[in-house]
Each structure stands twice: as C-alpha cells, then as structure tokens.
Amino acid sequence: MPTAIAGANTINLGGFDIVSASAPEVCQALYQACDQRGKLRLFFANTNFVVRCRPLIPRIQSAPVCIVNDGIGLELAARLIHRKGFAENLNGSDLFPRFCGGSQRPLRFFLFGSKPGIAEQAARALAERFGHQVVGTCDGYGEFAAAGPDLAARINASGAEVVLVAFGNPLQEQWILDNSDAIDAPVMMGVGALLDFLSGTAKRAPVWVRRLRMEWLYRLSREPRRLLKRYSIDLLVFFWVCLRAGNGHPPARTGRASSSQGRM
C-alpha cells in the first residue's frame, strides 16, 4: 500500500493517490523512516509524472510509496476536479533543502543518475551546505551500465540511508520499484533534475518567479526545445487523464512505462 503521512489526506489525480501535507509533515516521515529503518519511497508528481507513470500505478499501489504534489498543474487539476487544493506545493527542489536543513543529525546519501561528474559535484555541495555525508555516487550513463545488477549491493555496502535517483520520469520511478526490495536504504527519492541544481550546472528561477508559481515558464524560456511539448501537448493530455480518471479510476492503458526522460 502507498505510504501515508500521519494526519494527511490524499487527493486522487489520474489514478494516483497524492498526499496533501505540509513540508514539515513529509520531512518528519522521512526522518522517522531513517531512524526506524522503515522503507519509504518518495515520488514527486508533476504533470509529466501523471502522464508518463500511469503504467506503474498497480506496482505503486503495492509498494511503500508516498507521492507528493509538485507544481501548479496539480493544484489546478485538484481544484477543478475535487474543489479543493493541496496543503502546500511540495516540489523536490524546495522540499529537499528543507529536509536536509531540518535533520538533527548527519545523514548518509547515495547519489545516482545524471551525466558523468554531476553527482560528484552535487555531493560536494551537499556536504558543504548541509554537513551530510555522501557515501557513494553513480552516474546514469557508462558507470550505471558497467555496474549492472551489482549496483544494489554497492548501495547496500555503502551504508546509505537516503538514495537519490535522478533519471527523470518514468525511468527513476521504475528503477526504484524494480530495486526497492533489494536495497536496504530506508529512503529512496526520484528527484529528476535535483542533482543538476545542487551541482550548479542548472539554475533555478529567481525567488520572486517561484513565489508566483511560474518557474515552469522560466524553465521553458531556457530550454524551449526540450520542454515545449511538455508544457503544451503533454499538459493537455494531463488534464484529459485527470478528468477521465475523475475520483480515482485511471483511464484504461496497458503496456510498459514510456522511456522518455523528463526531469523535475
């Protein structure tokens, strides 16, 4: 069953039960999982997630997964369909620094994904900014291919408590579901472009743009070729999926998850 946050409700969009909770509530659940060695797999649902991860719904429903809302698209859909919004916007780029900064002890991280060299740069930033320990890294290209099925054992041997998987939707979610049982780390997160932001190789929108919840427009202006389809055609598909699913019945769809690599 999907993992619930104590005292939090869920809002069903596109067949996904998405937690409506505050950032402190989600962070507390993550700390508790680390301290008690329980398993919690955190997914961030933006419009791209809802469109591309639909084939994973049955697997998500039987796994220790918590899905939180990411972005204004989810908020608009919730208000349109359910006449209520989410408690807070919980995009990973904002939630993750709060999680790191609020921990009462150093945590052990394993960073996995992105281009060669990015994870190492993000590891240095994570240690310098928050004082946490990065016990291992693996890029999402040649190093990942070379590691093969031994990667789970490598992560376990590192003693990691938190594994960040940065492949984009739906590959990161699929990899987490495929390897959740084999990996001992209490927390795994699908984090999209987070390692790029941590390393400084990608820049976020100015704070005032984020407060207006227009970061998507800022990103579109910087990467129009990659993001135009996501914020036009895919956005229409997202609302169609949510409207068809209504209060909890996803549109019929079979087959494997798409291999398109979106980013947070």
Which sequence of SSEs, written as H and E, runs from N to C? EEHEHHEHHEHEHHEHEHHHHH
Task: Work out the count of structural domains.
Answer: 1
What strand line-up does the widest sheet have?
4-3-8-7-5-6
Shape: globular
Biggest sheet character: 6 strands, parallel
Number of strands: 8
What's the tally of helices?
A: 14
Approximate strand percentage: 15-25%
**What percentage of residues falls in helices of 4 or more residues?**
40-55%
Return residue spans where pLDDT drops below 50 for at least 5 consecutive residues: 252-264
3D architecture notes:
The protein has one domain (9-245). Helices cover 45% and strands 16% of the residues. The protein is built from 14 helices and eight strands. Helix 1 crosses helix 5. The longest helix has 14 residues, at 23-36. It is globular. The two termini are 25 Å apart. Keywords: Glycosyltransferase, Transferase. This is Beta-1,4-glucosyltransferase. InterPro entries: WecG_TagA_CpsF.
